User: Which sequence fits this backbone?
């Protein structure tokens, strides 16, 4: 069997390696436009920041180091220009010689990845404009920083990669701003979570401007300033991190079905609509396991999983790729962030009876050195108690929280199924009641009516209007707000009517909840706890 693979980064090389490992007699050829194969795309921001010191570390495999032990033919700097399904042939241009060639196949695997979306902006060809897609991009940017050419930079795009680039630029002493056309940074997070991150970044010296369009890059031969829809900015460099578009333009007139964004439509076996042609990775659609709908997930993790499954299928199996939850994690200055599953808005759009909770919880035993907090937003269906999504911020290992949730949702678990999981505990790693379990318990309390609360998002929307704020912290913490010491509440409070609307606020939410329970026992009927307390919310009269 002759298998021709178009593309040689994560998906393509995974298919090739697994194919040859399980059936060495298979003839496998990789054609790739790039000079490199199997490079660490997600590591590029960290090379810019000198966290990854050596550029050689960005290259997972060279064509030689991959092809010889695996037994795969790798042809670099070869650009596919045409696919002929009827002839089972591919036309390609050798970029080194400018010669055209034809390659036959029995099975064709399309793993051509995606290209950076570059908006049509005046000045994009000026010196000082950079992109973030290949090792060469990261190397060029770092060289400019080390040469002292960049003092002020603008990152265009407020997704994970854009913010990681911003962090690493700031770590190199560059003044950084980030703009995004969307209403918030961090798509896939709730707006209140994104707002918290924006404020955190500002405290770290990284300014973010949302709902802002880049209109022009200005300068005499090099970048000097930019014009945006909000304001002009003086900068030495512009770095684009504006998302990616599937690299599928060469498939026109092939009959291969494409989605709205140009990604190749495949089934659960990664088969296209044309026999013996398959697609995977950043150039193909996947399914969202929560909704069953088509999704686009350009991630190295999912590309590798798909590659392994497809190789098994090419060797005679019939395995299915279940799809993605939208799981992701990123490192920002002094803050790690992660998510999986549906957002609150997405869950509502799917018709779920949505309930959420936001809590601030210890990430490990509070007395252990280096202990900090997780800020957690959990989303569930109130009627059937199915876990729908999780978003976590914190200095510590947010990924373990996200991974627990991802497993739970993959198994279609309810909150009752996962509330008492036997999770690892020792003071350096966790709390006696694991922070994940703690979050589940609080959300169940909310569903069961044991706590009456208001979410940060509802608070921002003004839904606490008419409520009198009560400071329930250990000591007075909110200027101008009546303070109630929980330890001294042993009966009715003469200064408050029992039916008065009271918003109970403490640092994290725990003491406010305890005060609510105490007041309820004394007949107070109209209290709300502000989820996340002053650790997450800006509270004032």
Assistant:
């Amino acid at each position: 069997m002759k298998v021709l693979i178009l593309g040689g980064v994560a998906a393509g090389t995974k298919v090739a390696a697994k194919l040859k490992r399980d059936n060495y007699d298979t003839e496998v050829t990789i054609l790739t436009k790039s000079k490199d194969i199997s490079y660490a795309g997600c590591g590029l921001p960290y090379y810019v920041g000198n966290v990854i010191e050596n550029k050689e570390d960005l290259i997972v495999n060279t064509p030689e180091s991959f092809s010889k032990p695996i037994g795969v033919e790798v042809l670099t700097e070869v650009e596919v220009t045409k696919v002929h399904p009827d002839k089972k042939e591919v036309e390609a241009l050798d970029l080194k010689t400018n010669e055209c060639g034809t390659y036959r196949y029995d099975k064709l695997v399309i793993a051509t990845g995606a290209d950076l979306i570059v908006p049509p902006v005046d000045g994009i060809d000026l010196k000082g404009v950079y992109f973030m897609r290949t090792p060469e991009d990261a190397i060029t940017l770092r060289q400019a920083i080390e040469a002292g050419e960049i003092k002020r930079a603008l990152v265009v795009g407020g997704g994970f990669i854009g913010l990681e680039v911003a962090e690493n630029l700031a770590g190199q002493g560059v003044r950084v701003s980030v703009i995004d056309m969307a209403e918030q940074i961090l798509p896939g997070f709730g707006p209140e979570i994104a707002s918290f991150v924006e404020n955190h970044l500002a405290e770290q010296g990284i300014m973010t401007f949302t709902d802002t369009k880049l209109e022009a890059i200005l300068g005499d031969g090099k970048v000097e300033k930019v014009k945006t829809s909000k304001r002009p900015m003086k900068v030495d460099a512009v770095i684009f991190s504006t998302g990616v578009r599937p690299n599928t333009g060469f498939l026109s007139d092939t009959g291969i079905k494409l989605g709205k964004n140009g990604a190749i439509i495949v089934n659960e076996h990664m088969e296209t609509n044309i026999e013996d042609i398959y697609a995977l990775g950043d150039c193909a659609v996947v399914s969202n396991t929560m909704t069953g709908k088509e999704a686009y997930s350009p991630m190295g993790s999912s590309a590798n999983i798909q590659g392994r499954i497809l190789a098994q299928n090419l060797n005679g199996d019939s395995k299915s790729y279940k799809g993605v939850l939208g799981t992701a994690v990123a490192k920002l200055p002094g803050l790690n962030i992660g998510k999986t599953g549906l957002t609150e808005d997405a869950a509502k759009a799917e018709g779920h009876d949505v309930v959420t909770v936001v809590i601030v919880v210890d990430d490990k035993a509070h007395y252990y050195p280096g202990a900090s907090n997780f800020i957690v937003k959990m989303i569930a269906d109130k009627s059937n108690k199915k876990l729908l999504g999780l978003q976590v911020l914190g200095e510590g290992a947010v990924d373990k929280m996200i991974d627990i949730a991802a497993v739970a949702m993959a198994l279609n678990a309810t909150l009752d199924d996962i509330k008492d999981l036997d999770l690892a505990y020792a003071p350096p790693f966790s709390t006696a009641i694991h922070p994940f379990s703690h979050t589940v318990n609080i959300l169940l309390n909310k569903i069961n009516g044991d706590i009456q609360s208001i979410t940060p998002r509802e608070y921002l929307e003004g839904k606490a209007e008419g409520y009198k704020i009560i400071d329930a912290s250990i000591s007075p913490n909110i200027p101008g707000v009546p303070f109630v010491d929980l330890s001294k509440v042993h009966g009715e409070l003469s200064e408050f009517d029992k039916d008065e609307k009271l918003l109970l606020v403490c640092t994290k939410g725990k003491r406010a909840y305890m005060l609510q329970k105490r007041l309820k026992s004394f007949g107070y009927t109209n209290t709300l706890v502000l989820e996340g307390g002053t650790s997450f919310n800006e509270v004032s009269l």
